[in-house]
Amino acid sequence: MSVSVLGVRHHGPGSARAVRRELERLRPDAILIEGPPEADALVTHAPGLEPPVALLAHVPGAPARAAFWPFAEFSPEWQAIRYGTSAGVPVRFCDLPAAHSLAGEPSAAEPGDQGPGGAELDVVGTGMRGDPIGALAAAAGYDDPERWWEDVVEHRGGDTPFEVIAEAMAAVREGYRPEEREARREAYMRKTLRAAIKQGFGRIAVICGAWHVPALTGPLPSVTADNAVLRGLPKVKAELTWVPWTYGRLASWSGYGAGITSPGWYHHLFETPDRPVERWLAAAAGVLRDEGLAVSSAHVIESVRLAGSLAALRGRPLAGLGEVTEAARAVLCEGDDLAVELIQRRMVVGDRLGHVSDGTPMVPLQRDLRERQRRLKLKPEARDREIDHDVSKPVDLDRFILLHGLRLLGVGWGTPGQARGKGTFRETWTLQWRPEHDLALIEHAALGTTVPSAAAQRARDLAGAPSATLADLTSLVEQCLLADLPQALPGVLAALSAKAALDTDVTHLMAALPALVLTHRYGDVRGTSADGLAVIVRSMLERICVGLPVAVTGLDDDAAADLLKHVDAVHSAVALLTDIPAAPARDAPPGAEHSDVAEEAGPGASPRGRWMAALRGISDRQDLHGLIEGRLTRILLDSGGLGDAGDRMSRAMSRGQAPARAAAWVEGFLSGGGLLLVHDPRLLGLVDDWLTGLSVEQFTDVLPLLRRTFGGFAAPERRSIGERLRSAGRDDADRDQDVDEHRAAPAVATVLSIIGRTNG
């Protein structure tokens, strides 16, 4: 019986090649790998997987209790799994079960940012007292532990000295007492090893982080001691499966297995043992050419020479990532940091996304999404991918509905953007798949077996939450329409109606109304049914009109500016309510809601008529803030319902008004744009006379307001106003200029002689 413990660096290409070579030499009849034992049954799926992938462990019903074990093609553990499955050798995991690891307090980090090995050091980890690899690197004269590991391990072509690593780790761990969590993990590793020996396996290979090698070799603690360490561990029900992983996620990893900053580079080292530097720089040149940058073969040759020279100067056996990056920066990129960043993103990190086979255990919701992705030809990718939808086309509409349904489930695979073209039917999305999306799907698996059914139930749950605000419910109605969830709309609309009826804050109603109007408009244009939404919109608008006179009372500058935003938003929204019929008056004749009677403020008024009547009633009040009064005057003027705008402006700018209030009135009046001053000389003259009549001190006080007002105008508007004022000043000067009779005498004499008269 023999036990070979191979200490590795997680995600190390040199270690991966060395493990594969060592397993082929040892030909073990059992392989133990650091990882959760519950995943033993999942090993058989490995041949159908495409790395990077990860084992996902989660506690059903508790999404915060989840952990990932990522594997890349260049991970030693993955190469051990592939060897075992191809050679018919049993492969088992020997770390602490996930049922125990996930039983503690859930991490404050995101579910995808944790792992049961997060406290482990391995060969480059953090979180323990001291850094063994840092100590070994310092002893060798290195100030960078990563570079030392690359030089002595990764660049040896697969000839990793496992015995030397074991001796080094034993020396570093001498006198070290592991903390409780690590002690339990190593006790369980020994328990699994003893069980394999007891089952009669004669040649056992153990692949684990180099830090754990001394705990599995030499004199081991007794079975009784290990059982005492493991006794009384908390336990939960954990479920495991394989999920796709990304190199970008691996680069940002801070948990199990210690993440690496350059997975793309490591993948290259593993896949290209022959002339890796030359092939890397040639590929980098290709990336730059794809972006339209001029890079020749001579650039590549010179960059290879520079990388080799830098490695020789630094005493390195082979140019590493630092050397090839400096060579690419100096030669290929010619010092351009943006080009270097492009290589970093595309190659050093990479955008590779793994794939799991159809036979992998999945919840029905995951399978439904996979089928929809195939049918709609939406392949998940790690790199940002922008797509443009024309939702008038059936396939694009189905994609649009799917992406919005997923967003309702917390799966942000797609982010909507600004469409480039014009039209109501165009949508632009940016797609990027992240591993956490699988966890979100698993979390919501109990809501339904398909994306629409799960999204609909999620909408009902959100609508019934006591903490749901009016704004939340308004947004939820919009999401239900976008995701085409008519089965969820009645419940959401009922919750919205109840919340709106109880909310006494007019500003809340004003903030919610525009989104509801747009949602109603969307349903009308796209043909989506939203029965009952028009009733809610009309009811909310009525309550706004009733409560607005109170809301405009006693406002300071900040409150007035905030309310003005709501007034403008509601006014813009009301313009879209042409298809919502007026509430018929009790005594109105049939059809009155479609006549001029609907424009009055009576009970049968149209939404626009009711709103304009409310604004007109407020505009004559004397206690309004200048900003509000000026804006209401402008709205009424633009609607054609006001004939005394000039008189109102004259009163607002009279000497009896404080300059600050007059300036606020001007700001509100002109917030709709400056073209009015260009086309109305009287209003322009009123503003000009008021402004030129201010004293120096008054002008200094109101200057910030005026600068903000006129600074918001478009440049052509400001130029036209200036030209109007300049020409008006020139006309006045011409009229008032005194005539120099002495200089005019010769011209007068000439004119008189022409017409046959003398100057007598």
UniProtKB/TrEMBL annotation:
Region described as Disordered: 585-606
InterPro entries according to UniProt: DUF5682, LolB
Pfam families per UniProt: DUF5682 (PF18934)
Domain of life: Bacteria
Protein name: DUF5682 family protein
Source organism (scientific name): Nonomuraea maheshkhaliensis
